[in-house]
């Protein structure tokens, strides 16, 4: 069993501190056997990590809280190792909105899951998903708006063009809460007065409010692809080998005959079912040769 935790903290670090912190966290994690990816920057830290026992994960959590103060951890589990290796990397932004001026600090209109459910039932609220299309396609809150983002960096432009009235109460959410920290400030910068964010994101919500207003699965950025309602690794989705989006179409590879997964879009656009980019390439060569012979 692998114990997985997603966590972030916005807290200012000096540029020279980020390097020292990166080295310290990398060495500490390597020593206790962590896997996953942690980003460190002058605005704080953001990561998803895994450990083979709950004790090891707790040692990691204690280490982080001793360095950064209180942190909200969003835990889940997997029978398989969700990460190949252990990385701690330095980034300008620990979550990339494409604007280093927007730096969250402290609690700012955060709503815990139970209150979120109450607010969703109020009249005249807009529920806004701040994630990308490949995420919203496999699960969303009931009645939420999908801004159809390809990347989070398109969010500012979406807000400029969207027709949500500036005085409307907006409830926004993302996977673990970190994108909303910036999305919330960006909407306020553009004149929105009533913006709220789901504290701990979908992952915390699913744990505290199972079988309530969340519909579908939640995309995660590791080998699990997504987690289902029990926060267990998805049994439905695999990563489409051609585009990297989640896919739920079981195929038999036209080249190597092995079973595989693809997304609906790639099956349509390629008009071919292959289990990998290489098999797609090989299959194309064969078809081209056959066309020449004919
Ligand atoms: Zn695809
Ligand atoms: Zn194949």
Order of helices and strands: EHEEHEEEHEHEHEHEHEEEEEEEHH
By CATH reckoning, the class of the largest domain would read: Alpha Beta
Domain tally: 3
CATH topology of the largest domain: Oxidized Rhodanese, domain 1
The proportion of residues forming helix, as a percent range, comes to 25-40%
Number of strands: 17
What is the radius of gyration?
A: 21 Å
Q: Write the CATH homologous superfamily of the largest domain.
A: Rhodanese-like domain
Q: What is the residue-mean pLDDT, rounded to a whole number?
A: 95
Identify the CATH architecture of the largest domain: 3-Layer(aba) Sandwich
Which regions contain 5 or more consecutive residues with pLDDT less than 50?
none
Give the ligands present: zinc ion
Shape: globular
Strand order of the largest sheet: 4-1-3-2-5
Sheet-strand content, in percent, reads 15-25%
Tell me what you see in this structure:
- With 294 residues, the protein is of the alpha/beta class.
- It is built from nine helices and 17 strands.
- The chain has three domains: 2-90, 2-Layer Sandwich (Alpha-Beta Plaits); 110-219, 3-Layer(aba) Sandwich (Oxidized Rhodanese, domain 1), CATH 3.40.250.10; 246-293, no CATH class.
- The protein has helices spanning 15-32, 54-68, 113-120, 133-136, 155-161, 178-189, 201-208, 264-270, 277-293; strands at 2-10, 35-41, 44-51, 74-78, 86-90, 110-111, 125-129, 139-141, 169-173, 195-198, 214-216, 218-219, 226-227, 238-239, 246-247, 249-252, 259-262.
- The strands form six sheets. The protein has a five-stranded mixed sheet with strand order 4-1-3-2-5. It has a four-stranded parallel sheet with strand order 6-10-9-7. The protein has a two-stranded antiparallel ribbon with strand order 8-11.
- Helix 1 (15-32) packs antiparallel against helix 2 (54-68).
- The structure holds zinc ion (2 copies).
- Residues 253, 255-256, 258, 274-276, 279 line the site of one zinc ion.
- The site of one zinc ion (ZN) has 9 residues, from helix 8.
């Amino acid at each position: 069993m692998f114990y997985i935790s997603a966590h972030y903290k916005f807290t200012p670090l000096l540029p020279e501190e980020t390097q020292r912190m990166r080295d310290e966290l990398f060495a500490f994690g390597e020593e206790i056997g962590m896997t996953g990816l942690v980003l460190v920057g002058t605005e704080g830290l953001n990561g998803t990590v895994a450990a083979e026992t709950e004790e090891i994960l707790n040692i990691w959590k204690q280490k982080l809280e001793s360095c950064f103060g209180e942190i909200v951890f969003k835990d889940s589990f997997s029978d398989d190792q969700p990460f190949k290796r252990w990385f701690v990397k330095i980034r300008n932004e620990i979550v990339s909105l494409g604007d280093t001026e927007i730096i969250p600090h402290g609690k700012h209109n955060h709503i815990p899951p139970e209150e979120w459910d109450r607010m969703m039932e109020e009249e005249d609220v807009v529920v806004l998903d701040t994630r990308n299309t490949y995420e919203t396609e496999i699960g969303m809150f009931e009645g939420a708006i999908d801004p159809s983002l390809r990347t989070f960096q398109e969010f500012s432009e979406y807000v400029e063009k969207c027709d949500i009235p500036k005085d409307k109460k907006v409830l926004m959410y993302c996977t673990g809460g970190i994108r909303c920290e910036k999305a919330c400030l960006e909407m306020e910068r553009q004149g929105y007065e009533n913006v709220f964010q789901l504290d701990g994101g979908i992952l915390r919500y699913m744990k505290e409010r199972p079988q309530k207003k969340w519909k579908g699965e939640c995309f995660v950025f590791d080998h699990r692809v997504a987690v289902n309602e029990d926060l267990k690794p998805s049994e439905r989705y695999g990563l489409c080998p051609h585009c990297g989006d989640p896919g739920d179409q079981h195929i038999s590879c036209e080249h190597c005959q092995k079973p595989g997964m693809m997304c609906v879009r790639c099956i349509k656009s390629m008009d071919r079912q292959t289990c990998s980019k290489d098999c797609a390439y090989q299959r194309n060569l064969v078809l081209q040769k056959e066309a020449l012979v004919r």
